[in-house]
């Protein structure tokens, strides 16, 4: 985001203004409507925007003095997060937790995402740290665990597994050195959103094969509908299509590459970017500055055919006039290699407890009850996203059909690009991929640059792991 880091879930809007950590009540979303494409983003404007965002974040950090550091009244525990879109769901979960554990969760939000990370990491070195955090899984969580400032939650995890309250296959994403340091909050699948009414109008169905996907894109283009949404707006989305294509062409290579076991200069990585370059040649993409809010509305109104994103985008589609199951649908992108085990990218935020929080005992009690079906039903239904507790009914028909496919067909779960690899490497690689999106012919040079960064970053990460 996740200078910008992807927030999950969020409306993927323009960078938020830094604020203090006051509890926020989000204003009702107004329906978004398609806008005329803005002038095409250039590499220079993209980097300039990133510089402005970084400066704003630094100012926001100085202004931040979290209420969590002083603690909450007895019976209340604050959860410090980065997304205003999570305020209402967290409040709903807090009310539900009051009924099962006598505790109420209080959301505290700093929507300046860069400032949020800086506040978290700096506060862990002090005695004024938030009690509970909404954080990321994967290597970003490992990075936090290395500080010694967050609590071992293996006990609450094991208890939830024994009750059937969590999908045990998610454990690796929340583990550091064999211990669990975060509990899954949501379970977003990365899928392709589309408009079933538009597909039906043009004789299309959700693709069952890679060939079907390509044929659908071609037919949409011939009928003057932009087939695919792609964007570098906000910076972080630059990884989306690389992630989607690579994980469908070779899911094992994707997993190995993301974990530093393979190289970006491998022919399989080049094939993925070359595939995307071919889509640019066919003019299948939207302008690279079309954000997710406008793209969601464009899908609902039949201007864009397919939009890749996490299922957390559902609320944005609804705000744009979408109705799940009617003019909003979603499918898992088929495998390009039919011999590979079917896979899907997932994303799950982590509920983390700090070691030095002022309400530590109540915070740990909250972690023991977070995965309770009553709590997670309130949370996921307000969020309108997937749930890590398989006993919780789906929030809407689109989520239900996706969960049935993923669990019923035992799709391989691959963690999202943003959570995979040393955080500094991911940040730099996102910038490199943004450069590729703005100049698709540069893919070989981009891959070499990414591997040079990866060599250095993995060396540092592994050396740190040995200490």
Polypeptide structure, described:
The chain is an alpha/beta fold and 467 residues long. The chain has helices at residues 43-63, 87-101, 113-123, 138-145, 154-163, 196-201, 210-222, 240-249, 251-258, 267-281, 292-300, 314-319, 360-369, 373-383, 397-408, 423-438, 443-465, and strands spanning 76-81, 104-109, 132-135, 175-176, 179-180, 183-184, 188-194, 226-228, 304-310, 329-331, 343-347, 350-353, 412-415. Helix 2 (87-101) links the parallel strand 1 (76-81) and strand 2 (104-109). Helix 8 packs across helix 10 and helix 16 packs antiparallel against helix 17. The longest helix has 23 residues, at 443-465. It is globular, with a radius of gyration of 21 Å. The two termini are 29 Å apart.
In round numbers, the mean pLDDT is: 87
Anisotropy-based shape: globular
Q: Which series of helices and strands comes N to C?
A: HEHEHEHHEEEEHHEHHHHEHEEEHHHEHH
Cα end-to-end separation: 29 Å
> What Rg, in angstroms, do the CA atoms define?
21 Å
Q: How many separate helices?
A: 17
> What's the number of extended β-strand segments?
13
User: Which stretches are low in confidence, meaning pLDDT under 50 for 5 or more residues running?
Assistant: 1-69
Helix content: 40-55%
Strand fraction: 5-15%
- Which class do the helix and strand fractions yield? alpha/beta
Largest sheet: 6 strands, mixed
């Amino acid at each position: 985001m996740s200078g910008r880091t992807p927030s999950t879930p969020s409306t993927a809007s323009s960078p938020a203004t830094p604020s203090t950590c006051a509890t926020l009540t989000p204003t009702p979303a107004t329906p978004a409507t398609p806008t005329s494409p803005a002038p095409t983003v250039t590499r220079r404007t993209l980097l300039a925007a990133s510089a402005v965002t970084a400066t704003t974040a630094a100012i926001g950090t100085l202004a931040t003095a979290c209420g969590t550091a002083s603690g909450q009244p007895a019976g209340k525990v604050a959860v410090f997060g980065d997304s205003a879109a999570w305020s209402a769901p967290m409040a709903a979960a807090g009310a539900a937790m009051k009924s099962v554990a006598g505790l109420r969760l209080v959301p505290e939000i700093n929507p300046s995402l860069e400032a949020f990370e800086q506040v978290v990491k700096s506060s862990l070195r002090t005695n004024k740290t938030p009690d509970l955090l909404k954080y990321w899984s994967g290597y970003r969580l490992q990075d936090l665990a290395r500080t010694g400032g967050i609590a071992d939650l293996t006990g609450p995890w094991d208890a939830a597994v024994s009750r059937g309250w969590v999908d045990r296959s998610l454990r690796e994403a929340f583990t550091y050195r064999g211990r669990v340091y975060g509990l899954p909050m949501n379970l977003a699948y990365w899928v392709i959103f589309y408009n079933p009414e538009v597909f039906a109008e043009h004789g299309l169905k959700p693709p069952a094969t890679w060939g079907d996907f390509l044929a659908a894109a071609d037919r949409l283009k011939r009928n003057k509908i932009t087939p695919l949404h792609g964007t570098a707006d906000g910076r972080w989305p630059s990884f989306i299509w690389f992630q989607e294509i690579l994980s469908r062409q070779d899911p094992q290579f994707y997993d190995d590459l993301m974990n530093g076991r393979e190289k970006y200069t491998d022919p399989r990585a080049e094939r993925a970017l070359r595939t995307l370059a071919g889509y640019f040649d066919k003019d299948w993409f939207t302008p690279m500055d079309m954000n997710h809010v406008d793209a969601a509305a464009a899908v609902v109104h039949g201007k864009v055919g397919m939009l890749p994103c996490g299922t957390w985008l559902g609320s944005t589609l609804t705000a744009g006039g979408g109705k799940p199951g009617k003019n909003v649908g979603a499918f898992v992108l088929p495998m390009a290699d039919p011999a590979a085990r079917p896979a899907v990218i997932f994303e799950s935020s982590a509920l983390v407890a700090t070691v030095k929080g002022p309400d530590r005992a109540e915070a740990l009690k909250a972690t023991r009850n977070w995965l309770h079906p009553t709590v997670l039903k309130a949370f996921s239904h307000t969020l309108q996203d997937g749930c890590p507790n398989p006993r919780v009914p789906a929030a809407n028909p689109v989520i239900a059909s996706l969960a049935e496919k993923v669990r019923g067909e035992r799709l391989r779960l691959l963690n999202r690009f943003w959570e995979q690899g040393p955080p500094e490497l991911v940040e730099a690689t996102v910038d490199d991929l943004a450069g590729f999106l703005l100049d698709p012919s540069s893919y070989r040079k981009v891959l070499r640059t990414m591997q040079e960064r990866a060599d250095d970053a993995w060396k540092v990460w592994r050396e740190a792991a040995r200490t």
